[in-house]
Amino acid sequence: MSTIFSKIVAGERSADVVYQDDRVTAFRDIHPAAPTHILIVPNREIPTVNDLADGDEALAGHMLLVARDLAKSEGIAESGYRLIINCNRDGNQEVFHLHLHLIGGRPLGGMVKRV
Ligand code: 5GP
Question: What is the Å distance from ligand 1's center to 4 Cα?
């Protein structure tokens, strides 16, 4: 079973890829929530944060540093942005291939709606 994000990583599904190396791929979200909305995914299928192994520490850190660099190249590093990883049902995760959302380019308001 291959996720839609694995197909993008492999070039089998079209996407606006903005960065790729041997560990991660970054591409623009198909339904952007803001002027910049990029998904940073590990090339290897890892379903959720829960499935990260201790040995994935460098990979997880790499995802964060790629987000930092993309924020700079997108011109939103100084204005600010938000990094989000949704996990499972309560996190409203839709695609079960770990991904870090990089969202910015407009004021994003409060972090989570208080109910
Ligand atoms: P989640 O809710 O799992 O954290 O976020 C999944 C994200 O993937 C959503 O923001 C959705 O718009 C995006 N997405 C789903 N399918 C595709 C696709 O085929 N291509 C791209 N570029 N983004 C997708």
Answer: 9
